Amino acid sequence: MLELQKLTKTYRTGDKALQNVDLVIPKGQVLALIGPSGAGKSTLIRCINRLVEPSSGKVLLDGTELTALSSGGLRKMRRKMGMIFQEYALVERLTVMENVLSGRLGYVGFWRSFLRKYPQSDIDEAFRLLDRVGLLAMADKRADELSGGQRQRVGIARALIQDPRLLLVDEPTASLDPKTSRQIMRLICELCAERDLAAVINIHDVALAQMFVERIVGLKAGELAFDGKPSDMSDAVLTSIYGEEDWHATIRQVDEDEAETPEPAQ
Amino acid sequence: MSTVTLDDRLGTGWRKPHFITNPTLRWGLMLGAAVYLVLAIGSIEVNWSRVAEGMSRGWAFVTSFFNPDFVSRGGDIWDGILESVIITITSTVVGILISIPIGLGAARNIAPLPVYLVCRGIVALSRALNEIIVAILLVAIFGFGPLAGFLTLSFATIGFLSKLLAEDIEEMDRVQAEAIRATGSTWLQWVNYGVQPQVMPRLIGLSMYRLDINFRESAVLGLVGAGGIGATLNTAFDRYEFDTAAAILLIIIVTVMVLEYLSGIIRAKVQ
């Protein structure tokens, strides 16, 4: 369903954030993307919806080449990709309801959105989603009055009201406590199963990823370093992805999945 | 590099290092500045007989504050105030309306480079030209009266508000705006949802502040013929009617204080 072909991003500073990444994600698959800070995880998911413009390579969603779209076409396709952010990225001075409804911006005209006169079906769906994430009572609160976990739930509702085919999730639990982290991960994975959505989840917490997803991809210095089931995770694999900073470094050469990355990330 | 041990340091004093390390340069600069100051002050000519004469005139002006005359030119004062209020409000509203698009264009994080350069150019031009100079030019073009004052203050408001609005936009939280862009919003929707809520309190605060400034400026601009209460004030001075001038100044002071107080309340409310 989602296909990345030789996706490459080189920033103007010369940093090679992604190098020839090939990845195919079938419909309904939830995938966790792990790797050290600076490995290109955020860049990868932002290259999919082109918040970051890839330098070369292709991104295909259901056969549409996203990387070839004009800005109008891109906007139409962005509606099909819901995004969830690390620091929630709610617009803090807007209400919870406005934040959720902002997920419909790609579907309504300017004046409707400016006057906050959304179609009744959108409003109903917003209430349904708020109820699903347990925040129906909070609809008219300002977003900055909510706790971290609540904000992330609003972020999830905003992504889902887009009626997406794919979720792009950037470090959803990095600012949350361990219990809330699990609840949020569980919620995201449940919703993906309910709606048959594919998801790419950037995550630092490998154990949490193993607990919830069906496939893990490791990224290191902008290149794929691992692709397998959560049960395939081992010390050796982790060493190959994160190795350069711990004591495994000395045995890294004998690891698998390492052929293409002679230089450690940094 | 000699290594300093703790024993060397213990018991020795400590002073903040001098800003200019070289003592010759340091003392030379201080001495030079002092000499220049003395010479510069010495070069200002003071005509003491003229001062003595002016003192009594100044005193007459000060004493007239104790019995300001609101009545004998009451009609003129009222017309002047009304004109100033009209100039202030219209120029502030028009200035804000024009400032918003220019402010958006002058924010480097959301405007493409050519737009940015044009908008920054407009801001720089508006800020470089002092209100008085603009007013003199516009009075020459449009003649005496409030139109020149209105145009001058609108122009000045653009420079002030666009610059500060652009700076606020440049400091906004990028991720909130990014999240709105990721929903597939158009540019206008993105500004309305992602940018506007973040800068609105500052925009309202600055607008109130500018209203206050524009009223004060409208009093000054009358002196060069751009209408408003300043014109009435100027006439009063020309006729040596210091009691009327005092009344006008008192009205200006009170109005500015009230505006200041109101804008303070509004700014606190919208934060």
Could you explain how this protein is built, in words?
The complex is a heterodimer of chains A (266) and B (271). Chain A is α/β, with parallel strands linked by helices. Chain A is built from 9 helices and 10 strands. Chain A starts with a strand and ends in a 24-residue tail after the last helix. With 271 residues, chain B is mostly helical. Chain B has a single domain (72-270), classed as Orthogonal Bundle (MetI-like fold), CATH 1.10.3720. Classes of the chains: A alpha/beta (266), B mainly alpha (271). The interface between A and B is medium-sized, with 31 and 22 residues.
Helicity of chain A, as a percent range = 25-40%
What's the number of helices of chain B? Answer: 11
Shape of chain A: globular
Helix content of chain B: over 70%
Strand content of chain A: 15-25%
Short description:
The complex is a heterodimer of chains A (266) and B (271). Chain A contains 9 helices and 10 strands.
Sum up the structure in keywords:
heterodimer, A: alpha/beta, 32% helix, disordered C terminus, B: mainly alpha, MetI-like fold, flat
List the helices and strands and how they pair.
The complex is a heterodimer of chains A (266) and B (271).
Chain A (H helix, E strand, L loop, with lengths): L1 E9 L5 E10 L4 E5 L6 H8 L7 E6 L2 E2 L5 H8 L2 E4 L11 H6 L8 H5 L5 H13 L15 H13 L5 E5 L7 H18 L2 E5 L3 H7 L2 E6 L2 E6 L6 H8 L24
Parallel strand pairs in A: 3-8, 3-9, 6-7, 7-8
Antiparallel strand pairs in A: 1-2, 1-4, 4-5, 9-10
Chain B lengths: L5 H4 L13 H21 L4 H17 L9 H32 L7 H16 L2 H12 L3 H25 L3 H8 L5 H35 L7 H10 L3 H29 L1
